[in-house]
Design a protein that fits this description.
The chain has 256 residues and is mainly alpha-helical. It contains 10 helices and 3 strands. α3 packs antiparallel against α4 and α5 packs across α8. The longest helix has 28 residues.
Amino acid sequence: MARNAENGEELLHLLLDMGEAMLSCGAEIDRVENTLTRMGRSAGADEVSVFVIISMVVITLVFPDGREYTETRRLRYTGNTNLARLERLNALSRRYCAAPMSDGELAVALKEAARVEVAPWAFYTGSVIGAASFSVFFGGSGFDALAAALLALLICFFLKKVRPFCPNNLVFNLAVSFVIGCIGYGALRFIPVLHVDRVLMGDIMLLIPGMGLTTALRDMLTGDTLSGVLRLIESVLWAVGLAAGCMLSALLLGGV
């Protein structure tokens, strides 16, 4: 479907929205650049230049009549992962490349895809099972698994209700790990059979930036070294925040 260059600016804004949405739910840099390039060409642009890092997207579109549009958008990388939303966005991009839709239709489809969230019951259930399982995996008892499951509910509450208001993940991880560490070591005084280290190891696994580390390595292997290094540094800092929070709670309450 050939697109009039007069609509190039609106198309450019929609492509920036697509790139921001993909990055916000954990997409790799290569995937975002490839998706935006394909969509731009499918929309009728002769040349599409896309540059993406985790904090910025730059797109240039050149149409057959010689008109050129360029725009840059500053992004706030959160490190969140939402594979359900990413799958919906990927499906939308493939549908668009097969049969380009109007700008209005694309805008509506983008808003619908951006609303895709993991069901609360699945989020809480998965977190509880994950924390309890890791606690047992690291040598904890059934009682430790139960304690880890209860603390996992608190972590889920922080992730849902507090994290949106805390743009710095290092501070968030430090604060949450400190709180659950204080609760764990405080409970040890009343429940001597509790192995707090096993409990905390199970719960911390819910906050470990495993996807961030994996995506960082993939970015570097595919040639997006800058973004990969930035993601790697952030992921390491977030992990350090988790360790520091637990250590501070241990020092405060005599756990070490």
